[in-house]
Write a structure and sequence with these properties.
This protein is an all-alpha fold. It is built from 27 helices and no strands.
């Protein structure tokens, strides 16, 4: 036990306080030491000192609940703005978001001036956004922009939210306001991207600062050769960037140079292997080539990555119409149907798979399992016998064969199977 701790234990708080302050010279970031100083400062009624120590704790350890609680008590009768701001922070840390929002609102109301209210407004807007109340967040950020207009982050955040709530045109408007009224030069490149997405390539070309953005705008304007010339000039600099390869693929696509386009898509895929854009680009090429099977197959993959499984399934089923013997596709369709809970429909595709590939272990196992699940034990045994021939050690067969065969031979399976079809009428 060091001297300060001994003095504190002996309740010699003034002396302990002096000793702890000496230690702080070499331990500015020590939360434990700051906590002790804050605690003793309260005992000695040195409230201003306590505020400093607990404030430093929050700078080092923002989620520190004890520091929040002590500061809340210190400010309750002195500064309502800080009191509600700190209480809101603590409620947010405790995941009590409704209470936190109410506290931040009260902090805003108790602020001495608009500038003082800004921390509370930022926190309030952030909570609104986190709760999905985007229009409320937009309203608050617009208020913030009136008093913190030199902060470019406000305009970027508003653009992000306005695109979701009102559309891309509103997002462009707020960014243009920041560019023209506040002189945010960096917004030009950002705006160029927005204009491209809003099908305004001529505006994008006026503002674009980066070569790749200029190329994208030129391609959208139909000035393909100009864009291609820029790509060739910057090839050494950007050849390892995915955007470079996607743009080059776009150029070759527009020129009907499909083999070259596919090569660039492959290069893109090496850099960003899980991007849906890979399959979107391939689908567009196959469509242009008149290859309907691969077109819809790639649209299916595109939607799988995007999480749109229903759309993907429809694309796969369309592809199946153009090639109903593709084993990988049939297996994919069956798995998607099974994942959706449509085991009956899935079994139809597993049956097709077994017809095309009689030794397909997956199909036989799935069909045996399905037949057993509906009480058709004879049907299950038929598939399991086929499995035994090609895979004698199959785990599913070893675990279930004797049990299901016994049911089939005792006639139990037939009754169960018929009952599954006719229900209670079977008695």
């Amino acid at each position: 036990m060091n001297l300060a701790e001994q003095l504190e234990q002996d309740e010699k708080f003034e002396e302990a306080y002096v000793e702890y302050k000496k230690q702080l010279v070499n331990k500015q970031g020590d939360v434990e030491l700051l906590t002790k100083l804050g605690h003793i400062a309260l005992i000695l009624d040195k409230k201003d000192d306590a505020k400093i120590y607990y404030g430093k704790i929050l700078e080092i350890d923002p989620p520190n609940i004890l520091a929040h609680e002590q500061l809340i008590d210190l400010f309750i009768n002195e500064d309502k703005f800080k009191y509600y701001l700190l209480r809101g922070n603590m409620h947010a840390l405790q995941q009590q978001m409704s209470h936190a929002k109410n506290d931040f609102k009260k902090a805003i109301d108790h602020a001495k001036n608009p500038q003082e209210s800004l921390p509370a407004r930022y926190l309030y807007a952030g909570l609104c956004e986190g709760q999905g109340k985007l229009n409320e967040a937009v309203d608050e950020y617009l208020k913030i922009s009136d008093y913190d207009e030199k902060n470019p982050v406000i305009y970027l955040k508003l653009a992000e939210l306005l695109e979701k709530t009102e559309g891309i045109t509103s997002a462009i408007h707020i960014l243009e306001r920041g560019r023209k009224e506040q002189g945010f030069k960096d917004f030009e490149e950002i705006l160029a991207g927005y204009y491209i997405r809003n099908s305004q390539p001529e505006k994008a070309l006026e503002l674009a600062q980066k070569d790749l953005t200029k190329v994208r705008a030129l391609f959208d304007l139909g000035r393909n050769d100009e864009g291609y010339d820029i790509l060739m000039k910057i090839k050494d600099k950007y050849s390892k960037e995915k955007v470079f390869h996607s743009l080059l693929a776009q150029y070759y696509f527009q020129k009907d140079m499909f083999e070259e386009a596919f090569k660039e898509i492959d290069e893109y895929a090496k850099i960003e292997p899980n991007s849906p854009l890979i399959y979107q680009m391939r689908a567009l090429i196959f469509e242009k080539q008149g290859d309907s099977f691969n077109e819809h197959l790639n649209w299916g993959k595109f939607n799988i990555i995007r999480g749109e499984k229903d759309v993907a399934l429809n694309e796969y089923l369309t592809a199946h119409r153009f090639d109903d013997k593709n084993v990988d596709l049939i297996e994919t369709i069956a798995a998607l149907l099974e994942a959706e809970g449509d085991k009956t429909k899935a079994s139809e595709f597993y049956e097709r798979l077994a017809d095309i590939d009689p030794k397909n272990r997956l199909a036989l196992e799935k069909l045996a399992d399905f037949r057993e699940s509906i009480g058709d034990n004879y049907g299950a045994i038929e598939y399991m016998d086929r499995l035994k021939e090609i895979d004698p050690r199959n785990e599913f067969v070893q675990k279930n064969y004797d049990k299901i065969k016994d049911r089939a031979e005792n006639g139990m399976g037939i009754m169960q199977f018929l009952k599954s079809i006719f229900g209670k009428r079977m008695g």
